[in-house]
């Protein structure tokens, strides 16, 4: 089922199957700005929890488990609650099925709040039994003609690059780069850590700017190299699995832990037209 909220700038529609964004219309122009799915990528957005990417089988206390791509949330039906005109919260909890592939009891929710021309997305994770390791993050596919956007950083960055395979490498400086099909053919998923916390801007060929703001430890950039008019700028509290990482879930880098008090993570996505 689809659920919508709107203000004078944006109309956001969210699907309770997976809890992800289904549509994001910029009302001053009446234009859809979220990729609407297709052969190049059937999704539009993904709520990531509790692992990132196509993870190899992992271990918890010596027992092996395996999850589908990006974890559990994207395959779950979440319960939706509308909070006023500008906010939606969708939630689900562990059950006998989730425990087969992720042996922790939890409550999870994702909230969407419209603030002028921005969407604030907040993830809430709470363990219901002991220390729980997890990753969480976003995967919005924003419309970009030709699958190309100029990525600019508010601050000059000195990031660390984390390849999908192999070790990390420091970059002396980075202020902008072109995220197009040639770029993604070369690097696949571009993962950057050690960023300053300044805004990241994705500027499209049709005059839109998407601004991302978050204190997340890592941003990933991705689009299907073969096609699709979209670019994903993804705030991650975690990292794509790597063959060099430990199999024990709690020992993987960038791991988060909740001990029952609950943990919140958020980012904002703004839409502007030149």
Explain what you see.
With 274 residues, the chain is mostly beta strands. It contains two helices and 25 strands. The strands form five sheets. The chain has a nine-stranded antiparallel beta sheet. Strands 5, 13, 14, 16, 17, 19, 22 and 23 form an eight-stranded antiparallel beta sheet that branches. Strand 22 and strand 23 (230-237) form a beta hairpin. The longest helix is centred in the C-terminal third of the chain and has 7 residues, at 181-187. The chain is globular and about 55 Å long. The model has no long low-confidence stretch (mean pLDDT 97).
Please give the radius of gyration in angstroms: 18 Å
Amount of helix: under 10%
Main β-sheet, in a few words?
9 strands, antiparallel
Kindly, what is the distance between the CA atoms of the first and last residues, rounded to a whole number of angstroms?
34 Å
Structural class: mainly beta
Strand order of the largest sheet: 8-9-10-11-25-21-20-15-18
Report the average pLDDT across residues: 97
Low-confidence stretches: none
Q: What's the total count of β strands?
A: 25
Secondary-structure element string = EEEEEEEEEHEEEEEEEEEHEEEEEEE
The number of distinct helices, counting runs of at least 4 residues, comes to 2
Strand content range? over 45%
């Amino acid at each position: 089922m689809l659920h919508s909220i709107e203000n004078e700038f944006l109309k956001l529609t969210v699907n309770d199957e997976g809890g992800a964004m289904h549509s994001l219309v910029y009302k001053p122009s009446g234009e859809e700005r979220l990729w609407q799915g297709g052969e190049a990528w059937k999704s539009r957005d993904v709520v990531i929890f509790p692992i990132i990417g196509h993870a190899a089988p992992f271990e918890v206390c010596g027992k092996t488990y395996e999850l589908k791509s990006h974890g559990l949330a994207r395959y779950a039906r979440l319960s939706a609650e509308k909070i006023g005109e500008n906010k939606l919260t969708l939630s689900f909890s562990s059950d006998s099925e989730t425990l087969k592939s992720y042996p922790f009891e939890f409550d999870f929710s994702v909230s969407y709040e419209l603030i002028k021309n921005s969407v604030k997305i907040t993830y809430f994770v709470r363990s219901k039994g002991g220390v729980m390791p997890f990753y969480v993050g976003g995967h919005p596919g924003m419309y970009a003609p030709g699958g190309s956007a100029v990525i600019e950083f508010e601050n000059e960055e000195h990031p660390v690059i984390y390849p999908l395979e192999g070790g990390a490498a420091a970059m002396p400086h980075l202020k902008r780069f072109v995220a197009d099909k040639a770029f993604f053919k070369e690097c696949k998923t571009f993962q950057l850590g050690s960023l300053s916390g300044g805004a990241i801007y994705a500027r499209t060929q049709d005059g839109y700017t998407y601004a991302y703001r978050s204190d997340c430890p890592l941003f990933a950039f991705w689009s299907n190299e073969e096609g699709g008019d979209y670019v994903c700028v993804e705030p991650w509290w975690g990292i794509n699995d790597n063959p060099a990482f430990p199999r024990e879930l709690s020992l993987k880098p960038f791991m988060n832990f909740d001990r029952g008090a609950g943990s919140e993570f958020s980012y904002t996505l703004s839409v502007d037209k030149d």
